[in-house]
Specification:
Cofactor: Mg(2+)
Protein name: phosphoenolpyruvate--protein phosphotransferase
Largest sheet: 8 strands, mixed
Subcellular location: Cytoplasm
CATH topology of the largest domain: TIM Barrel
Number of domains: 4
Keywords: Coiled coil, Cytoplasm, Kinase, Magnesium, Metal-binding, Phosphotransferase system, Pyruvate, Sugar transport, Transferase, Transport
Number of helices: 26
CATH class of the largest domain: Alpha Beta
CATH superfamily of the largest domain: Phosphoenolpyruvate-binding domains
GO molecular function, one term: metal ion binding
Strand order of the largest sheet: 7-14-13-9-10-11-12-8
């Protein structure tokens, strides 16, 4: 059963079009279940009708032309209930409706299961028999399991099929294809897509139209010959250690690359209009799919050999391709399966209009980086056919998490108005730069920034930041291929400290692990967010920790504005050990003759254990800073980088709000500084609630700071506390955001956050 499910899924995944995928499903299901009929009905998004899209057993000629209304027939009953319907005699059921022209009148037994993707019913998979008999539990379970496995494949095939036949260079505007993701960074971007991808990875190569067939074919043949030479050299190098049979394997590889085999297929794809890399991907993955479906284990293993050959050809092709910077002649919308910070680091910032990532969530590090740079971003667009979006006109709606491809002139005009309104808001924010963040009734709130790059300093000061609430030291570690030396770290930290002096600069010790990896210090774990990360790593590697501490303190010489923050604290013992080491480092630097003062030390409150020991921790340190991103993640048991559960990650969940309020309540009167440095602090709605709770400092991206200041300066503390009291009574996260939106509208401050027209789309 499992092997059958695997083979069907693999075949469908490899299909090149939606009709082909659906035909595979009905053909294979009918045969494997020995059913007389198998059909697939898909929901038409515009009419909500169930359209017969593919069938084996009924009249295939009417597929795509006949349909059932949303309240008509057994198929729609399955869809409405979102559960299976299994009948011995379908004709006597009150919901039975004969679909003219299908020839189903002679079939009595009926089993229909819904095809559900992300809680949305995409369609119904149906099997039927002529005789009256109920399908047994095993058959029903098989169909349910298959439907669940294929739902995502069908959703992607639907999305891909929608634009598969459009030529990006010649297709007229006006299709307005819409795809849903999750908001990553607010704002709107209108422009052309550029698909980026990691090197030598066949799976993520996009399709790209070409008319210069001769050049692409020449490049392909040059790459092919380079791989042939590599194989011959490898064969000659180790031939003396191999038997005749083993040496013959290299000859097999050379034959696979022969013009009459894969090479010929790639050339054919190029002549059909795809560039060499895209053509190679199509051919290699199609052959891999065929090998994977074979029953013989030896033949299945050949799929890995084929992938290796494909990757080698691709590597040589990419050596000749223009580098990533050369691809950007104008500001563009960057699209990728999984965008990373290193990818963005290779692209000039002035060439990035917007970002779209298939993987990740609104609190992925790429999204956080995008917010810091003010780039409209959508994450977690799982059904987006990204490989077909190179040089395609796009609109990115970072407010609502939507992407539009081939937008109409009317849609572009609508979104251009939003862009224009955003520009006016930015001009309004500019007038607030030198004004204090103070409520209408005189309450003063300090606004700091989160930084990670040298460039952040000037940008943050220009936005009116009063200090750095979080400097992420892992960033300079991540852009190197080795640990930076103590001397190199001194230079890096000095830039941050000097740039903001005499204002305070909070430097966090190295916070790696989880989703923050160093290529030269790999941490491979089954549950990385529950594993070796943050303070746990650095206390286990004192050479790393002490080099950091010494560098931080040296960098603060004569400035005296350093604060040190410890991440991922889960118990008092960790803080005691770290404090002892910091004092030791301070004493050593002092003895070396540096003019330094013992820095203030604080801890991050970002896991539930710390929330419940916050009073004991406050007795040891000078300040506490809540990392709302991780605290939300751990309280809700939601991986913030997983787009499948992105909707569950919500900092306005009542449990999160109660935990945040509890922290303030526990340390009231203890004399410790209390701040929030997670993304919630940069959300104007979150900033109001955090201020009302009693947090002294909010630290955020420089892009978010003007919005927060504008909102705080236009309400009173009394209004903020009223809002807090109202939402603390609520039991649903959605109710919290809806209530806050209403209260902010009534206070006439919602207009300060986003253009008015964003609510219309």
């Amino acid at each position: 059963m499992l092997n059958l499910l695997r083979r069907i899924t693999q075949e469908v995944t490899a299909a090149e079009s939606l009709p082909a995928a659906l035909d595979i499903i009905v053909r294979r299901v009918r045969r494997s279940m020995r059913a007389e009929v198998c059909s697939i009905y898909l929901v038409d998004g515009s009419t909500s009708e169930y359209v017969l899209m593919a069938t084996r057993g009924l009249n295939a000629d009417v597929a795509g032309t006949v349909s059932l209304k949303s309240d008509e027939g057994l198929v729609s009953l399955v869809g409405r209930r979102a559960e299976p319907v299994n009948l011995e005699d379908a004709h006597i059921h009150p919901s039975f409706h004969y679909l003219q022209g299908t020839g189903e009148e002679r079939y009595r037994s009926f089993l229909g299961v819904p095809i559900i993707h992300h809680r949305q019913v995409l369609g119904v998979l149906v099997v039927q028999h002529e005789d009256k008999r109920r399908f047994d539990e095993g058959e029903e379970a098989f169909l349910i399991t298959l439907s669940a496995q294929l739902a995502g494949v069908i959703a992607h095939a639907e999305a891909t099929g929608a634009i598969a036949n459009l030529n990006a260079n010649t297709a007229p505007k006006g299709f307005d294809f819409r795809y849903k993701g999750v908001p990553g960074s607010s704002g709107v971007a209108i422009g052309r897509g550029v698909v980026v991808f990691p090197p030598a990875d066949l799976d993520v190569i996009p399709d790209r139209r070409t008319t210069d067939f001769d050049e692409e074919i020449q490049d392909f043949y040059q790459a092919l010959e380079a791989v042939r030479q590599d194989i011959r050299r490898a064969s000659n190098r180790i031939s003396q250690h191999l038997s005749a049979d083993e040496k013959a394997l290299f000859d097999v590889y050379l034959k696979i690359l022969d013009d009459n085999s894969i090479a010929g297929e790639v050339v054919k794809k190029i002549k059909e209009g795809n560039w060499a890399q895209g053509a190679l991907r199509h051919v290699i993955l199609a052959h891999i799919g065929q090998f994977n479906r074979m029953d013989d284990p030896y033949l299945r293993e050949r799929a890995s050999d084929l992938r290796d050959l494909g990757r080698r050809i691709l590597s040589h092709l990419q050596e000749k391709a223009p580098n990533i910077v050369e691809r950007f002649s104008e500001p563009s919308i960057i699209v990728g399966e999984e965008l990373t910070a290193s990818m963005l680091g290779e692209i000039p910032i002035d060439k990035i209009k917007g970002l779209v990532s298939v993987m990740g969530s609104g609190n992925s590090h790429v999204a956080i980086l995008a917010r810091a740079m003010g780039i409209p971003t959508v994450m977690g667009a799982l059904d987006l056919p990204y490989a077909q979006l190179d040089k395609v006109d796009l609109i990115v709606d970072g407010y609502l998490g939507k992407i539009y491809t081939y937008p109409s002139e009317a849609l572009i005009e609508n979104y251009q108005q939003i862009v224009d309104e955003e520009r006016l808001l930015e001009e309004e924010y500019e007038t607030l730069k030198d004004l204090p963040c103070e409520t209408l009734d005189g309450y003063r709130l300090a606004l700091y920034v989160n930084t990670g790059l040298t460039a952040d300093v000037a940008r943050s000061l220009d936005r009116g930041a009063e200090g750095i609430g979080l400097y992420r030291t892992e960033v300079p570690f991540m852009v190197r291929d080795r640990f930076p030396t103590e001397a190199e770290q001194v230079v890096i930290y000095r830039q941050q400290l000097e740039g903001f002096a005499p204002a305070p600069v909070t430097v966090r010790t190295l916070d790696i692990g989880g989703d923050k990896a160093l290529s030269y210090f790999p941490i491979n774990e089954a549950n990385p967010f529950l594993g070796w990360r943050g303070i746990r790593v650095t206390l286990d590697h004192l050479e790393i920790f002490m080099a950091q501490i010494r560098a931080m303190i040296k960098a603060s010489a004569d400035l005296h504005n350093l604060k040190i923050m410890l991440p991922m604290i889960s118990n008092v013992a960790e803080v005691e050990e770290a404090l002892a080491l910091i004092r030791r480092g301070y004493a050593e630097i002092k003895e070396e003759g540096y003019n330094v003062k013992m820095p203030k030390v604080g801890v991050m409150i970002e896991i539930p254990a710390a929330v419940y020991q916050v009073k004991e921790l406050s007795e040891l340190v000078d300040f506490l800073s809540v990392g709302s991103n991780d605290l939300t993640q751990y309280l809700l048991a939601v991986d913030r980088n997983n787009p499948r559960v992105a909707d569950l990650y919500n900092s306005f969940h009542p449990s999160v709000l109660r935990a945040l309020f509890s922290i303030v309540d526990q340390v009231r009167g203890e004399g410790v500084g209390l701040s929030v440095c997670g993304e919630m602090a940069g959300d104007p709605m979150g900033a109001i609630l955090l201020m009302a709770m009693g947090y002294d400092v909010l630290s955020m991206s420089s892009t978010s700071l003007p919005k927060v200041k504008a909102v705080i300066r236009n309400i009173s503390m009394a209004q903020a506390q009223y809002m807090l009291n109202e939402v603390m009574k609520l039991s649903h996260a959605e109710a919290v955001t809806q209530t806050m939106t209403r209260l902010m509208r009534e206070a006439n401050i919602e207009r300060l956050i986003r253009p008015a027209k964003t609510n219309e789309n």
